[in-house]
Design brief:
Layout lengths: L2 H6 L24 H5 L3 H13 L6 E2 H8 L3 H13 L3 E4 L5 E4 L1 H14 L5 E9 L2 E7 L3 E7 L6 H7 L11 H19 L8 E5 L2 E5 L14 H17 L2 E2 L8 E4 L2 E4 L6 E2 L5 H20 L5 H9 L1
Antiparallel strand pairs: 1-3, 2-3, 4-5, 5-6, 6-8, 7-8, 9-12, 10-11
């Protein structure tokens, strides 16, 4: 969707204080744009209090919300009922009346902050989805992409096992894990751009990362005219990332885009430093994934040892 289309679809406004009502036409958005736009200051205060309280509680007690917001119990109950109905908050009565921020509420806080800062002014349709994220096109100073990290449910246990930055013990709610995942990805993009062909990082707030919009399909959806040239371009970018001290750690044909004939490496939350104890085996796995894809789809044979030496040399 280009800028003109977004404007004529009613998705863009000049001000930065709100997300526009046009988002309500996007079925994948978990909450209504109208609810985000008209969020009462008391409702926002409760969302912020839940975010703060969830650093200590899986379910924030009502008494804690009263302490954090300074609102009366009747006011809090009224506002909570609205937030629950809007899909921003969840209630649990056992073993006490407790409340939890869910992704709808976390999306709301991130979008409200990013629009207030002028980073984005509108959000469009979903353009990508992975096991731990969804990506929407949006408008900032121009077309951008906004990626919402969603480390939760089925993927949370594996995230704790496979990522050094996830604590093995203690309280780590899914929302906080998603925030950490977004911070990690933004850190990688800031480190790598422009030496490595990655999306230009623009901003990060909570579990959301705003970056330049890449207009191109995933590598697995392409039919390349010169597959060896593309393979060597990928290896060169993996080499440049390695020189910058970064290993992707989850590289495959599904997180490489082809835009106007150039490769763009995406999805960096699982990156590890080249000083990691398992760096050699992990970068080797990344290379194996790419070589296997080109052999499978294009019958292109490439010497594995030469590829590894190119990357780490």
């Amino acid at each position: 969707m280009d800028v003109k289309h977004m404007q004529t679809a009613g998705l863009w406004y000049g001000g930065y204080d709100f997300i526009v009502p046009g988002i309500t036409s996007v079925p994948s958005m978990p909450v209504s744009a109208e609810h985000i736009r008209t969020l009462n200051k008391y409702e926002k205060a409760i969302l912020l209090a839940l975010e703060r309280g969830m650093k200590k509680y899986a379910w924030v007690p009502l008494e804690q919300l009263k302490t954090l917001t300074k609102l009366s119990e009747s006011e809090i109950n009224y506002r909570l009922s609205r937030l629950i109905a809007w899909g921003m908050v969840r209630f649990n009565p056992v073993p006490y009346d407790g409340y939890s921020l869910v992704f709808g509420g976390y999306d709301t806080l991130a979008l409200a902050t990013l629009t207030h800062k002028g980073t984005i002014s509108a959000i469009g349709s979903q353009i990508g989805e992975g096991k731990e994220s969804v990506v929407h096109e949006a408008l900032g100073l121009g077309p951008v992409a906004i990626k919402f990290h969603r480390v939760g449910g089925r993927s949370f246990s594996s995230a704790r096992l496979n990522r050094d930055y996830m604590p093995e013990e203690g309280h780590c709610p899914w929302l906080m894990a998603s925030r950490k995942s977004a911070e990690r990805e933004f850190e990688a993009l800031m480190t790598l751009h422009p030496m490595v062909s990655v999306p230009l990082p623009i901003a990060q707030n909570r579990h959301a990362v705003v970056m330049a919009l890449i207009n191109g399909p995933n590598l697995n959806r392409c039919r390349l005219e010169a597959p060896q040239e593309i393979l060597e371009e990928i290896l060169e970018n993996v080499h440049n990332a390695y020189k910058a001290g970064v290993i992707h750690a989850d590289l495959s044909e599904y997180n490489i885009l082809i835009e106007d004939g150039r490769v763009v490496l995406i999805d960096w939350p699982q990156w590890i430093p080249t000083t990691h104890v398992n760096a050699g085996s992990i970068v080797g796995r990344d290379i194996d994934n790419i070589l296997a894809f080109f052999q499978r789809k294009y019958q292109l044979e490439y010497n594995r040892e030469e590829a590894v030496q190119w990357v780490i040399g």
